[in-house]
Amino acid sequence: RLxxxxxxxxxxxxxxxxxxxxxxxxxxxFERDCSVQRRHQKVLEEAPxxxxxxxxxxxxxxxxxxxxxxxxxxxAGTVEFIADAADASQFFFMEMNTRLQVEHPITEMVTGIDxxxxxxxxxxxxxxxxxxxxxxxxxxxxxxxxxxxxxEAGFLPGSGNMDHLRTPRAYGDTYVPAHVRxxxxxxxVRLDTGVVEGDEISVFxxxxxxxxxxxxxxxxxxxxxxxxxxxxxxTVGTPTNVAF
Length: 244
Prior knowledge:
21% of the residues lie in helices and 36% in strands. It has helices at residues 54-70, 104-111, 115-123, 178-181, 219-231, and strands at 11-20, 26-38, 41-47, 75-84, 87-97, 140-147, 149-150, 156-157, 160-161, 164-166, 188-193, 200-201, 208-216, 234-236. The strands form 4 sheets. Strands 5-4-1-2-3-6-13-11 form an 8-stranded antiparallel sheet. Strands 7-8 form a two-stranded antiparallel ribbon.
């Protein structure tokens, strides 16, 4: 047998968060753009995907839910598509990740939904808390993965002791209503990390230090928040990709 895949000379990575329960319920929580990657791994993600209008958003979401239903899926999952960079309406199935992903906080930021809570409720046999038409998309979010690595050396992973670590000030609430997410009152900076000053970044584990997540009113304001937060990052003892 021969498997033929569409070749795209210039592509985007667009993925859709889906959720299914054991009662036949299935929804999508809109899309994320994860095109900025290095060493075959994502490093910057954003939601919603730029250049995706409501019509295309519906097509992506319907295709993702259809794929999940086709295999009787239950729980949180991500359906990943490769899209033509010149025309995102030309999108094709790549794979499905059967779990919450590293970048799930940006979906939480723009939907106001705690996806971990949903996962626990579905696992306990409960139906999905909301139907598709009750889900809202508001605001714009970015996630930057902070790694101990050297971008100038082909993103070679780094190691060492975190002798000094100062992180941006976190503020705002991820889980707020749509009318707040789409205003300046909904601006937020979130830091997900398990690393503190004095910790060792070992050669035996993935060199990710933290995930920096921001939400702005729109894409320009979210980018401004991201730049400001990255500028407040200080690390001594290990290289990082913050400047990159």
